[in-house]
Design a protein that fits this description.
This protein has nine helices and seven strands, in the order βαβααββααββαααβα. It has 197 residues and is α/β, with parallel strands linked by helices. A hairpin with a 2-residue loop joins strand 3 and strand 4. Helix 2 packs across helix 5, helix 3 packs antiparallel against helix 5 and helix 4 crosses helix 5. The structure holds adenosine-5'-diphosphate.
Amino acid sequence: MLKIGLTGGIGCGKSTVAELFAAKGIPILDADVIARELVEPNQPAFEAIKQHFGAAILKDGCLDRVRLREIVFFDPEEKRWLETLLHPLVYSEINRRLAILSAPYCILVVPLLLETGRRHLVDRLLVVDCPEDLQRQRVELRDGLSQPEIEKIMSSQLSRSERLAAADDVLENIGDKVSLSDQVEQLHQFYLALSRH
Ligand code: ADP
C-alpha cells in the first residue's frame, strides 16, 4: 500500500487536511492520536510515566497531560526521556496498524516525521505549508498560547524551508478551506493514480 507522510509545522493545517482525506474514505494514522492512546491507563506507556514522574502526574487515575506538557516544556532532559519512551512505541503501533490496513493508499500524520529521522517510513512526503505569521495566528486562536510559547514550539521544529526542501508534494494552506479542499481532491486523484502503478 502506498504510504503518504503528512507533515508540517504547528498550525499549518495537518489535522484539517487529514480530515479532508478521511472524508474521502482514506485511512489516517495520526501519531499524536496514537501517542494519546498509549498513555491511557493500562496502556504500555502509562506505567512507565507514573513510575518516572510519581503519583503527582495523575489526575482522577489518568495521566494529567496538561501537567506533563508543562513539565517537559520547561525541562529538556524530561522531554528527551518522554520522547525516548514514546517514539518507538508510537512507530511500532503505526507499523502494527499498517499491517492490517487495506486501501489504495493511506496517510500517516506525523508532525515530527523529519525531526525524528523517520522519512523512510513513507513512500512520499506531503508538506502542508503556510507563512510563519499565519502559523502563529492560527495557533494563538486555536490553543490560546502566548507568542513566546508559540515561538518556543516553532523553534523546536524544522524551519519552513527545510520542510519544503524535503517535500514531494506541497499543499499551500493560505486560502480558505474551499481552496484547501480543492487541492486535496487533486492530490487524492494523483495518489489514486500512483497506487495503480
Ligand atoms: P495542525 O494540525 O498542523 O497543527 P490544524 O489543522 O489544527 O493545524 O489548523 C490550525 C488551526 O487553523 C485550526 O484551528 C484550523 O481550523 C485552522 N485552519 C487551518 N487551515 C485553515 C484554513 N485554510 N482556513 C481557515 N482556518 C484554517
